[in-house]
Specification:
The chain is an alpha+beta fold and about 575 residues long. It has 18 helices and 17 strands. Among the domains are: about 180 residues, Rossmann fold; about 150 residues, no CATH class. This is DNA repair protein RecN.
Amino acid sequence: MLIDLKIKNYALIEKLEMNPSPVLNIITGETGAGKSIMLGAIGLLLGNRADTKLLFNQEEKCVIEGVFDISSYNLQELFTKEDLDFDNQCILRREISPSGKSRAFVNDTPVTLDVIRKIGENLMDIHSQHDTLQLGDTSYQLNILDIYAGNTASMGNTTFDIYAGNLSYLRNYNESYRQYKKLESDYKKLTDQLAQAQKEHDYHAFLLNELDEAGLQENEQEELEEELKQLENAEDIKLKLTQAVQSLTESEFNITSALKDTVHTLSQLSAFSNKYEELRSRTESCMIELNDIAGELEDAERNTEADPERTLEVQERLNLIYTLQRKHQVQSNAELLQIQRELEEKVGSVLNLDTAIANTEKAMKAAEQEVLEKAAILSERRRASFETFEKELYTLLAELGMPNARIVIQHNEVAPSATGTDDISILFSANKGAQPQTLIKAASGGEFSRLMLSIKYMLADKTALPTIVFDEIDTGISGEVAVKVGKMMQQMAQKHQIIAISHLPQIAAQGDSHYFVYKHDTEDRTISRIKKLDDQERINEIAHMIAGANPSDNAYQSAKELLSL
């Protein structure tokens, strides 16, 4: 529950602090005094988006801080999941700088808005007039029935430990549904892929067959191009090789003979110095190397012959390779081989897709069956709660001055969706003999307020939410009904901290603590302030709420009587 709230530099609030009671807190004040501004600040604390236009002083940062006692609400797992240190006291803080930069903290640890939102929604539920309007939405009504039936095991918006390990009935169904939809999407993608692959299969198979028949080899192109050069220039090569051999071995002044004479001469000199022996050895090595070269040149010359048939064969093979390269728009044999491998995968993928589709279809049907089974359990639990929900809500509405109200839950079975196979609509009539209709058509503003309060009252025991904030949920009611609304809030406050903004004296008198929001004019601007009223101040404020600016003695007496109730 909220034990301390500080607001600094927000809208009309220069600085504000309140320490609400753990039970029922009432906030009153004139219209425009700043009650709703406080709710806006609390909304920022719970993760709402910030706007620098709301800074009281545009040159200073806005700070909103709430201290919560969370010792009894089993939030350790949530803090662990978000990698936050847990303490029995949790401090949420938002800071908005004049530049527009927003920062969020949980126990002085910087966090994202998403994290502070997850923490905050487990600490407070703010009911605004917008929520009352939401009551007309069928998806909102379905969520109400799920909480009532225990399908969400709700702690704020967090589900926990009642079914299938530690998931709620609704969460367990929803996870199965998401898995089914994923498999359904995968199946469609595979079938689309197969249809496209089948269109291209024949063409890819033709291209692959053409490359297979070509029998391409690594480095084949380079080797054939070199061989073709040899064949096309065989006569010139043979002539030059002959000349080279003759220069080395057969001419009058051939190199090998000269080297042989040099070796002989250096052998005679080697007796005079080791240097000459070294030179002899080196010259002899040169002679041996030249003899080897001459031998290889002779072999090359003997093996070089013009071969028109082989030349034609190599040319045709290269022409085939060049044609394939142009067709596939590549420059090398290696790229052609890569294309061949890719075509093999594409052609083979059609067969692989058939297997993948069959496996995915089987898994999808199993997942669909699981979804239907879990949807049936969820639906059965919902339908089982209809009668008790209708009776309990009718009883509460009768106590709030609507004895002729009728509540009927209309149910239709629909195709599986994220929320199950149920289409729910709460039908309502306030007057005897009137046919129940949808809430949008049948309920007035005051009736909506009483409906919402009754539903909140019914759901309060089914949630572990520490703090509930009501923003003028008493709109459209008065008199004895207002007294009963206050009593309902008192009963809710036995298990939840309640903070209620009200304009009715009957409700204001029910509070354990009463705060008054008012405007204070300084020399240059108007600011909002809040104060906790003592006993006499409460009498004065409630008397003003009854009779206006100048209450009579009767108004003061009525205020005392309301407080004594």
